Amino acid sequence: MHFFEPVATTAFTLRPAPEDFKVDCGPDGAPFRPDAVAVDPAGEAVWGALAFGGDEGIATARYWVAPERRGARLAARMLKAAAPGLFAAGAKRFEVRPPVRDQAAIRAALRAGFRPDGGVSRGAAWDGTEAMVLGLLPNDGPGPTPRVLPDLPGGMLSDDTVSLRPLVPGDFEAHLRHRSSPDVYAGAALPLPPSAQEAREICEWRAAVDWLRGRSALMVIDDGTGYQGTIGLYDVARVVGTGMIGYDLSAAVRGRGYATRAVRLVRSWAFREVGLDRLWAGTDVHNAASQAVLRRAGFRLEGVERGGLPTISGPRRDTLLWALLSSD
Ligand SMILES: CC(C)(COP(=O)(O)OP(=O)(O)OC[C@H]1O[C@@H](n2cnc3c(N)ncnc32)[C@H](O)[C@@H]1OP(=O)(O)O)[C@@H](O)C(=O)NCCC(=O)NCCS
Fold first, then answer.
1. Topology (CATH level 3) of domain 7-136
2. Model confidence at 188, in pLDDT bands (50, 70, 90)?
3. Do 153-325 and 7-136 fall under one CATH topology?
4. Between 20 and 30 A from 222 (CA), which of 1, 96, 178, 281?
5. Is any atom of ligand 1 closer than 6 Å to the C-beta of 147?
6. Pairing outcome for strands 93-96 and 134-136
């Protein structure tokens, strides 16, 4: 399974690593000995490296690009160059397990055509943390893997008042403070504040990974003064063309129309760029402000969902079901 033959591409040559070559992973990581290195056309400088593993028909690889060569999608090209040889040597599946916090490594695999078919696997990454497991089969095609939820155009959605952007690790403190506020979590599906660990995980990797896996797109609402709340497209079911919208604003900026603007921006993105046909949202029967937001954004009331959501005390509560079709 570790069989490897040199591959020459127009940009680099992938060849067996010299015996004494080790990848220096910096102060935080243990160095590793790769099986293959990508060298420049003159054969002098090591630009990147691959270490193969695996068994029973599944080949795995760890990949690394020299810091000065990053940003040119070399990792994706190395993975693509190595794949045919591994399949020819008998691998039925080529699997990579980048750490969930390493967005560049996950995106490199997606660009190389690997599909996020293995979920999040605890302790499975090359640094011992949670991994996103992606697999490539011999007939999967050259990539990139189509994304159910594309990146936002230019990294954000905006009108002349608010902008929406993906949640990032630096949002942790603002996100925890916001979601710990009773007037914010009272409107959540399960009205509880998050633990600090949950909030940290969402900001550090869970929101980004769920976006890349096509599950949900969680965005920060910013009015030019920073984090003011969130809006998300959740429960995305591409096969039936549906998704759910949920949002929250900090009390200090309510009543300014920010939520309606945010829903309109997500609505357009979901219909035009994601290709969904039906958006739905649930509100508490007493939440007049949220109902007005949906009505202003074009949603129609479809009925009462009996016991739509749980409560802390036990009996489920009824919710109102709102929906908007792309054809409305
Ligand atoms: C992961 C790695 C191999 C990728 O190298 P690369 O091929 O140069 O990757 P790029 O910089 O071209 O980025 C790949 C993708 O990630 C994106 N990306 C890069 N940095 C990012 C970041 N900080 N956050 C989010 N996305 C990022 C790029 O935009 C690109 O996306 P696209 O293909 O959708 O356009 C390289 O960063 C690396 O070696 N990291 C260390 C990995 C490692 O093994 N560490 C421990 C052992 S030494």
1. Aminopeptidase (3.40.630)
2. confident
3. yes
4. 281
5. no
6. antiparallel
Question: Helix, strand or coil for residue 230?
Answer: strand
Instruction: Select from 22, 60, 73 the residue to mutate for testing ligand 1; criterion: most ligand atoms less than 8 Å from CB.
Output: 73
Domain layout of the chain by residue ranges = 7-136, 153-325
- Kindly report whether the global pTM for this prediction surpasses the value 0.85: yes
Phi, psi dihedral angles at 282 (to 5 degrees)? -115, 140
Q: How far is CA 75 from the centre of its chain?
A: 19
Q: How far is the CA of 291 from the centre of ligand 1 (A)?
A: 42
Domain 153-325 in CATH 3.40.50.720? The answer is: no
β-partners of residue 14 are: 7, 38
- Which residue has tokens 């009331």? 301
- Distance separating alpha carbons of residues 187 and 250, to the nearest angstrom: 12
